[in-house]
Design a protein that fits this description.
This protein has a single domain, classed as Uracil-DNA glycosylase-like domain (Uracil-DNA Glycosylase, subunit E). It has seven helices and four strands. About 4% of the residues have low confidence.
């Protein structure tokens, strides 16, 4: 993977990383289109951004406002790889994600600090769920999917995403209360 691109994407994300993280959402990768979730110059209508704002009940006037509110809620989005893979076929996408797995784990541990194994993670996009859930669980991360897929919110899957994500989010809130109570 091109290290320069990774640094650019993660620096955009770092500006909006919450002080206390309540939920980590693990997605596939930034898209080739440049419609990166943390690009403050993007549009409110970007599928993933729009879907996550709806999950939080937020109707921001600007993307920057939405990113700030996302941050205030304690949510952060991390990509399984920072190499845009949406131009590749399924096999090639999966290979890149598998190759970058150790970087993902390092990124999550850095981000979550001493609570790395307690803060809840939700995986989104079917291939990310299939490829990473068991690996992350085996490595001690608190993955809430429990075998449930969460489709990416585009190409007619917006309603599926909404339903699938909401099935997991209430557990996330309960897990956060347990995490904060234990510390």
């Amino acid at each position: 993977m091109e290290q320069k691109k990774r640094v650019e994407f993660t620096s955009m994300r770092r500006e909006f990383e919450p002080t206390t993280i309540a939920l980590v959402i693990v997605a596939e990768s930034p898209p080739v289109s440049g419609k990166y979730f943390y690009n403050r110059d993007g549009k409110l209508s970007e599928p993933l951004f729009n879907a996550l704002m709806k999950q939080l009940g937020i109707q921001p006037e600007t993307k920057l406002e939405g990113l700030r509110q996302f941050q205030e809620r304690g949510w952060v989005l991390v990509d399984a790889t920072y190499q845009p893979v949406n131009v590749h076929d399924k096999r090639a996408r999966d290979l890149v994600i598998a190759q970058d797995y150790r970087e993902l784990c390092s990124d999550l541990r850095r981000l979550l600090g001493t609570l790395w194994n307690r803060v809840p993670l939700v995986l989104i996009k079917a291939n990310v769920c299939r490829l990473l859930e068991s690996k992350l669980r085996e490595d001690g991360f608190n993955v809430l999917n429990k075998g449930r897929l969460v489709y990416f919110p585009s190409n007619g899957h917006q309603h599926n995403f909404d339903r699938q994500f909401r099935e997991i989010v209430p557990q996330t809130r309960a897990a956060l209360r347990r995490t904060l109570t234990a510390t």
